[in-house]
Amino acid sequence: MKINRRYSLRLERSELKPFVDLGLIRENDYSDLVKVVGFDLLEDDERIPSVQRLLHGRKYLTHDTATFSDDDLKGADHLALGFQWLNGYPQPDDDFGYERITYSPIGFCQGCGIKGPQITPFRLRLPPKWGRRKMFSLNWIFDEMFVETSYYDTRFRPLGLEARDVVHHKSGEILPTVKQIDLPDVDFGFQMDTSKGEICKVCDTPRYHPNVVDYLPSLDRDASAYPVFRANTYFGDGFQSFRKIVISSNVFKMLREDKVRALHFHPIKNA
Ligand SMILES: [Zn+2]
């Protein structure tokens, strides 16, 4: 695991040269309208002292994320699954209308946005344009996964995972090429540092910052019986709360072998 730091700052065109010379940015990418440049450096990058000298006395922003090697990913018993393909917005998308029809009002928290159980299928504006992809999630939705129907049938159904229909919003008809995995909700989660959580004043549920710049903490129960599940720890901020989708190392291997695209994996510390 290495920490990647994203730097962003405002530069005039006349100030670009030392940054270009260090290989941090390319002059062709610079916009005289935007004037903001960004670059990434891993924690062991030998250019860091030079960059610190360049940045001395300037205003800049940084954002740290954890990056993992292939060996890190292969060595984890469980990993959290994320999606690079967010296939549009759940419908109806005006005024968060989908929330009112998709989830039960029972269990919904006015304080942190934790949702109740799902009571109706998700509705999409258009049938998915799969291309060579097989899985996606949606904007605003961080803890659901949608899978191409034939891929679900051959790979996820044999693991014992149920699936829900997905509906075309305008016609109300079931979309035959996509299934939503009915993720098992387990009653265990991550061994979080509780001093770092914030407790919702309305529902008393602890919640954690979504950007964990490390391995995710170990699961607090033996999860070997579950190939895919939703862990019972909430992440988020403001009115957005979600849990993480967790997969076993076997499911990780399966997705790798099948070359499923547009996924993101965050390894969990082995217990
Ligand atoms: Zn709450």
Keywords:
6 helices, single chain, binds zinc ion, about 270 residues, 2 domains, 5-stranded mixed β-sheet, 4-stranded antiparallel β-sheet, about 15% helix, alpha+beta
Describe the protein in words:
With 271 residues, this protein is of the alpha+beta class. It has two domains: 2-67, no CATH class; 74-267, no CATH class. 15% of the residues lie in helices and 30% in strands. The protein has a five-stranded mixed sheet. Strands 12-15-4-16 form a four-stranded antiparallel sheet. The relative contact order is 0.17. The model has no long low-confidence stretch (mean pLDDT 96). The protein binds zinc ion. Residues 109, 111-112, 114, 200, 202-203, 205 line the site of zinc ion.
Largest beta sheet: strand ordering = 5-8-9-7-6
Give the biggest beta sheet: 5 strands, mixed
What percentage of residues falls in helices of 4 or more residues?
Answer: 10-25%
Question: Secondary-structure element order, as H and E?
Answer: EHEHEHEHEEEHEEEEEEEEHE
The N- and C-terminal alpha carbons lie at a distance of 17 Å
* Rg of Cα set: 21 Å
Mean pLDDT: 96
- How many DSSP helices? 6
Overall structural domain count: 2
Q: Poorly predicted ranges (pLDDT <50, ≥5 residues)?
A: none
Number of E-type strands: 16
| Small-molecule components bound | zinc ion
Shape: globular
- Fraction of residues in β-strands: 25-35%
Structural class: alpha+beta
